[in-house]
Amino acid sequence: MKKLENYLIWFTLLGGSFSSLEADSAPDTKGTAVPTDAKASGASVPSKDIPVFSEEVTLKYLRMYGFLVGSNANLSALGLKNEKEKKAVSGGVEDCIEGKPQPPDLDSKWPDIETFLFQREKEKLENTKKEGEAFLAKQAKEPGYRTENGIVFEIVALGDGVRATGTSTVKVSYTGKCNGVIIDSGENVELNLGETMPGFVQGVQLVGQGGQVHLFISPSLGYGDESFGSVPGGSVLEFTITIHSITNTPETPAPAATSTAASASAPANVK
User: Fold this and answer.
1) 17: closest CA among 52, 59, 49?
2) What is d(CA 239, CA 221) in angstroms, rounded to the nearest whole number?
3) Residues 112-140, buried b or exposed e (16+ Cβ, 10 A)?
4) Percent of the chain with pLDDT over 90
5) Per the confidence metrics, is the pTM higher than 0.70?
6) Residue-wise burial string across 241-256, b where 16 or more C-beta atoms lie within 10 A, e elsewhere
7) Are the CB atoms for 221 and 230 separated by under 8 Å?
8) What gap in Å lies between CA 90 and CA 69, rounded to an integer?
């Protein structure tokens, strides 16, 4: 992950200025906040190359910056259980913002803190995986859904008889979600299936050209136990995939069309 210093540089390069905010500022034609009486009073007007942000924009950027800091610290992995725990973390952040000295025993306690943080991340991962397993089991019982080798799927449209293999090149449109939030998407994207996650490969093989599948992927066939961007480790992934075309190499011809989509060949073991 990026170091915190990189975020500080990022914000500095934006030209943010918090001491120059004016209560009666009005944006100029390009949106740069300039005091309305600056020219009349003879005060120097900031160069347009050095923006002065309004209070609204400043607060917005500070919140974004706070998110980046929290993401860098992987705070979501702590699985904070209640308001007291959230207040303890935010209290430490406030102490830092106010310039208070670090706790005198921080250095000596750091090995214990690392052990604690590792345990909390492990606990959060285990809970996420248990919740995912329960969700998959429930989803598999929904009308139209089946389960196979770690995925739960619904065939929306079967498509033609051409089937992909684990090394096929496919053109697809897809939307990927985690906990209902879109994490990835693409329209008419050409992909080498050998470079995608195993669950995605397996899902594509369930239908032919012109087909569409809606599937839920277990973490073992998705991102695994590691967090990936905004996706917590151990998460179930949801994909809706439409296959526009399939190209199979001569060395790995497509399997013969079968009577049911579930009998497609097993996916390659792609990391």
Assistant:
1) 52
2) 13
3) eeeeeeeebbeebbeebbeebeebbeebe
4) 59
5) no
6) bbbbebebeeeeebbe
7) no
8) 12
What pLDDT was estimated at residue 73? 83
| Per-residue pLDDT tens over the stretch 224-268 | 998 887 899 999 999 999 999 999 866 544 454 443 333 333 333
* SS3 labels along the chain: CCCHHHHHHHHHHCCCCCCCCCCCEEECCCCCEEECCHHHHCCCCCCCCCCCCCHHHHHHHHHHHHHHHHHHCCHHHHCCCCHHHHHHHHHHHHHHHCCCCCCCCHHHHHHHHHHHHHHHHHHHHHHHHHHHHHHHHHHCCCCCCEEECCEEEEEEECCCCCCCCCCCEEEEEEEEEECCEEEEEEEEEEEEHHHCCHHHHHHHCCCCCCCEEEEEECHHHCCCCCCECCECCCCCEEEEEEEEEEECCCCCCCCCCCCCHHHCCCCCCCC
Q: Quick one: which of 172, 192, 208 has its CA closest to 249?
A: 192
Domain range summary for the chain, segments of one domain joined by +? 4-73, 146-263
> Would you say the C-alpha torsion 88, 89, 90, 91 has a positive or negative sign?
positive
Measure the CA–CA gap between 18 and 32, rounded to whole angstroms: 14
Nearest to 205 by CA among 245, 249, 151, 166: 166
Give the rounded distance of the alpha carbon of 87 from its chain centre: 25
Please give the structure tokens belonging to residue 207: 């239908």
The CATH fold of domain 146-263: Chitinase A; domain 3 (3.10.50)
Position 107, amino acid = D
